[in-house]
TrEMBL record:
One of its GO terms (molecular function) is glutaryl-CoA dehydrogenase activity. This is Glutaryl-CoA dehydrogenase. InterPro entries: ACX4-like, Acyl-CoA_DH_CS, Acyl-CoA_Oxase/DH_mid-dom, Acyl-CoA_Oxase/DH_mid-dom_sf, AcylCo_DH-like_C, AcylCo_DH/oxidase_C, AcylCoA_DH/ox_N, AcylCoA_DH/ox_N_sf. Its cofactor is FAD. PROSITE patterns: ACYL_COA_DH_2. Residues 26-134 form the Acyl-CoA dehydrogenase/oxidase N-terminal domain. One of its GO terms (biological process) is fatty acid beta-oxidation. Belongs to the acyl-CoA dehydrogenase family. Transmembrane segments: none annotated. Residues 138-230 form the Acyl-CoA oxidase/dehydrogenase middle domain. It comes from Curtobacterium luteum. Keywords: FAD, Flavoprotein, Oxidoreductase.
């Protein structure tokens, strides 16, 4: 399916026309992504969400659209920008946050871990196949007893024995893990107490991944509990440039802004559904869009979206310029997810009681927002990252 920049209309929710700042090639690419999502993903999103299954048939087409690892020089299709990658995350989020999260794990977390912390040989071995969707990756950081305190609180251990490492421990909430081929496992080296990264193939003896059931958000994402008992990994699969938590933090810095863009996409998806409903729902003899209080909810929602796009556009532009810090991505994530949560609530309110059923379009976004609000750093932790930057004082504990 082909398109041109001129035939790729701006989203109605891009009220100030920020998307016009993309290059023609980036808008062409974004138009192809939008066309695919509307034709192939939107019609099945509610069904797969309700069944708590992931639509694996989208993996190959999304690879052809260049969605895996677009920021990694070894595999990217063209010299795209972080701003473009943000808009791609928004487009994904406005249709299906579960698919957006799958890509965030595959491309942002797993592939970026190899790009940031892997050797040149490891990058050549893994990244091209992951970019083609031939190998699926996951990112194993969070643990049952360690979330926000992962920098210090990891309990998964790595012990070197000759040319191998032995991993023992547990991970939780690991997206893609039930069908991944390789998981980036972050573990504490018992010798020096430093966090190191390992490429663990999921067929390794002692490795098990069990799907987490009964979620109320991101039901399409296949989150898993991982158990490792005496998992042996060769030294060649230790990420060669990951010698402390700094490498992990660098990966998270690169991905947090894109999570913020995903959050905007969820807000946009809910807003579009609420606006469509308001235009067609008749009460008191006219569309509810003609009622003042409904317009107030819609305008407040659009203002939240607009402010979030403005903030994230600048955060991504700073990343492109090489001047974006942890505090900038942290503020983007904290702000955009908080405004998303507020917005999906207002959009559900526009739909009244109908807002809690999938067929009216807001309910899935309303539920998924709760997961995006918390993952890749809670609002509180991201706030403290910014607080440390502006005061010079760490207040994490």
């Amino acid at each position: 399916m082909s398109t041109t920049a001129a035939s790729t209309p701006l989203l109605e929710s891009d009220f100030y026309g920020f998307q016009t700042g993309l290059t023609d090639r980036e808008r062409d690419s974004l138009g192809r992504l939008r066309a695919y999502l509307e034709a192939e993903v939107r019609p099945i999103a509610d069904e797969y969400w309700a069944r708590a299954e992931f639509p694996k048939q989208v993996i190959a087409p999304l690879a052809e659209l260049g969605m895996y690892g677009p920021g990694v020089p070894l595999v990217r299709q063209f010299e795209n920008s972080a701003v473009y990658r943000g808009w791609a995350a928004l487009e994904l989020g406005r249709v299906d946050a579960s698919v957006a999260t799958f890509i965030g794990v595959q491309s942002g977390l797993a592939m970026n871990s190899i790009a940031v912390a892997g050797s040149e040989e490891q990058q050549q071995e893994w990244l091209p196949r992951m970019a083609r969707g031939e190998l699926i990756g996951a990112f194993g950081l969070t643990e049952p007893l360690s979330g926000s305190d992962s920098a210090r609180g990891l309990r998964t251990t790595a012990r070197r024995e000759g040319d191998e490492w032995v991993l023992d421990g547990e991970k939780r909430w690991i997206g893609n893990a039930t069908f991944a081929d390789v998981v980036v496992i972050w573990a504490k080296d018992v010798a020096d107490e430093q966090v190191k990264g390992f490429l663990v193939t999921t067929d390794t003896p002692g490795f098990t991944a069990t799907k987490i059931e009964d979620k109320i958000a991101l039901r399409g994402v296949q989150n898993a509990d991982i158990t490792m008992r005496g998992v042996r990994v060769p030294e060649s699969r230790r990420l060669q440039r990951a010698n402390s938590f700094r490498a992990t933090a660098e990966v998270l810095r690169l991905t947090r802004t894109e999570v913020a863009w995903q959050a905007i996409g969820i807000a946009v998806g809910a807003y579009e559904a609420a606006l469509d409903y308001a235009r067609t729902r008749i009460q008191f003899g006219k569309p509810i869009a003609a009622h003042q209080m409904v317009q107030d909810l819609l305008v407040k929602s659009l203002a939240n979206i607009t402010a979030s796009i403005a903030l994230c556009t600048q955060a991504s532009a700073m990343q492109d310029a090489g001047v974006g810090g942890d505090e900038h991505s942290a503020m983007a994530k904290a702000f955009a997810t908080a405004k998303m949560r507020e917005t999906v609530g207002w959009c559900r309110e526009v739909q009244g009681g109908n807002g809690i059923v999938l067929e009216k379009g807001v309910a899935r976004f309303f539920s998924d927002a709760e997961a995006i609000y918390s993952y890749e750093g809670t609002r509180e932790v991201n706030t403290l990252i910014v607080g440390r930057a502006i005061t010079g004082q760490a207040a994490f504990v």
